[in-house]
Amino acid sequence: MKSFVENRFGLVALVIVALAALYGAAYVTRPPAPAAPKQAAAPRKVAVESVTAVCPGTKGEKVGVYLPGGLSHETMEDGKPYVTKGTAALEAGYTTRATRGAGRGLAGVRCTEPAPATWLLGPGPADAGVILHLTNADKAPALADVQVHAAEGPISVDKGIGLEIAPGEHREIDMKTLAPSADIMAVSVTTIFGRVAVAARITLETGGVDWLPAAAPPAARVVVPGIPGGGGRRELLIAAPGESDALVRVKAVSEDAEYAMRGRETVDVPAGSVVSVDVTTGVGGSSAALVLTSETPIVAGLVMTGTGGSSDIAFTAGTPSLDLGSAVARNGTGSRLILTALGGRPGKVRVQVVPGKGAAEQPFDVEVPAGRTRNVRLKAKGDFAVVVTPVSGEVYGGRVVEERLKTGLLITAQPLAPARMWTLLPPLTDTPRVVLP
Description:
By secondary structure, the protein is mainly β. The protein is 7% helix and 51% strand.
């Protein structure tokens, strides 16, 4: 009996020792606990070291070139594209003025950087002369694709695919050769390799001329700022370039209110197409911005027609906020800024006028109430640059130049594009996909 009890307790002890060894080994070899999910890293703000800016050529016109501390002018001796290179914050552009003929109007263009993709929205070749300018300012060849989206959907034309642009070459494309029946259009220029700068000039058959500003790339939220008040038609263009239809909610932010326009609260945009929406009565006589939201990425721009017997035309487009600041190199009498504060709190920016001759003027602060739009008239004379620096809040803006003649209003507009002093780099993530075929 004693032997049995001893053997029984001995067996229990052996079992306990074996279990302890088993659980000890399991504890040592257990996989590590899953790490807590990391918050997505925000893009990094880094300084720009050098800039290349390209303008389509217009013989005899003066290009305003802004660099911190001064504004200079250079005359284009021929009709070739104007290319300038410099340090960070370089801005360049010019404005043409004609009071008669088919090209009557003010037309302003910003010298653009070569980009991997550029979006433009405006009237189509059925109602206007549309010339697309592609410039390869580098010493290496480039290859680009031009895709047109119209009211009926995407227009596939082999002539726009695989365009070879030699080093230093400038190519002009009459959009009638790609989409002759389009009355409204969204054009994307995608660079396959190399670097290409893009611009497009519009001349309406009914009168008016201007250059299309580059629109922000497809996104679920697009802000179209810099819409001046006053008479004339305001036509919103929305494109859904993807494979899904877009249900777009439209909100106006004027000088007095923030509201959904009656009868235009939502807009249906079929996949691959462009839709035109008359917002003339929606924004009324007040300067404004439009805020568009959609679950499907969209691109947007706006066409503005002047008043009078001979009407002019101007354009603005979706653009980022002024978080990186902005500058417009070429301005003149009748210039003003149109600023809009979003995000539920007031905004503030610092504005500085840099004349073509003499020292820069003392900067001044502009406060914009939350959910409102404000006009800021620039009283400088002659040619001058204007620099806008963010102080606080989420602010968007545009620059408008107007000249009133007996024959009708001359007008040109330009959304305040991000300054070239800073850029945002996306976060880098370790992944084996970078080495996989």
